Amino acid sequence: MTVWQKISDFAGAVGEAGGGLLGDLAHLFGLDRGSEPQNDVAFTIGVIALSAKMAKADGVVAPLEVAAFKQIFRASPAEAANVERIFNLAKQDVEGYEAYANQIASLLKGNRKLLQDVLEGLLHVATADGVLHPKEDRYLADIASRFAFSPSEYRFFRARFVKDNGNPYDALRLDPAATNDEIRAQYRTLVRDNHPDRLMGRGVPAEFVEIATRKLAAINAAYDTIAKERGF
């Protein structure tokens, strides 16, 4: 049974049982663990729920946030309605997001790259309306902590999405005292590690390739800014 067939079954069960059992049913349908956790139904449901609850964190689910979610989380036309049903159920309130974050952290334990991809996917949705609300920021910072990322790592990821962070050194994870050679070397490393082709090679769902492209754009913009300032 494919993950989307499982999602369809799960969505039907949610409709019969009611929203109060969303978390329990997600656990039930996630018991069938595969060798690739990103293809596990529990992972898929967790990402849908975290995205929906994050969009609700500031009190209003903006249409741009919904559009951003659909942009990175593409379902087949036949399954889109089931994904939307779970998203709409989860977006009713923020309560319970911790369980989904912990579930994903457990599924992807040790896979920091994929955990980063999930966190950056949420950042993509959160900033789709051009601003990161303080409540969304706190929500995402807590998820980052549950994913075992430090506050400084979260600020580093955040700097690539939030326009109010004007320090290009943060986007490149560099100290302003870094030498030109260190800046060039770090830039080459980040471009290599965040290239969409490399992302796909790690087995990350195709939906995240657009986020990788956005990350690269932020990295390039930060590097261009520093290069112009330093004259190289």
What is this entry, summarized?
This protein has 232 residues and is mainly α. It has 13 helices and no strands.
Protein architecture, described:
This protein is an all-alpha fold and 232 residues long. The chain folds into 2 domains: 3-165, Orthogonal Bundle (TerB-like); 166-232, Orthogonal Bundle (Helix Hairpins). 66% of the residues lie in helices and 0% in strands. Helix 1 (3-17) crosses helix 5 (80-90), helix 7 (112-126) runs antiparallel to helix 8 (134-146) and helix 11 packs antiparallel against helix 13 (209-230). The longest helix is centred in the C-terminal third of the chain and has 22 residues, at 209-230. The N and C termini lie far apart (55 Å). Mean pLDDT is 76; it is low at 10-22 and 28-33.
Layout of helices and strands:
Layout: H1 3-17, H2 22-29, H3 41-56, H4 63-72, H5 80-90, H6 97-107, H7 112-126, H8 134-146, H9 151-158, H10 168-171, H11 180-193, H12 196-201, H13 209-230
Helix pairs in contact: 1-2, 1-5, 3-5, 3-6, 3-7, 4-7, 7-8, 11-13
- CATH fold name of the largest domain, please? TerB-like
- How far is the first residue's CA from the last residue's CA? 55 Å
Decide which structural class fits the backbone.
Answer: mainly alpha
Order of helices and strands: HHHHHHHHHHHHH
Count the domains: 2
Could you estimate the helical fraction of the residues in percent? Answer: 55-70%
How confident overall, as mean pLDDT?
A: 76
Radius of gyration equals: 18 Å
- The count of helical stretches stands at 13
Strand residues, percent: under 5%
Q: What is the number of strand segments?
A: 0
CATH architecture of the largest domain: Orthogonal Bundle
Which overall shape is indicated by the principal axes computed on the Cα atoms? globular
Q: What profile does the largest beta sheet have? A: none
Reading off the top of the CATH hierarchy, the class of the largest domain is best stated as Mainly Alpha
Stretches where pLDDT falls below 50 for ≥5 residues? 10-22, 28-33
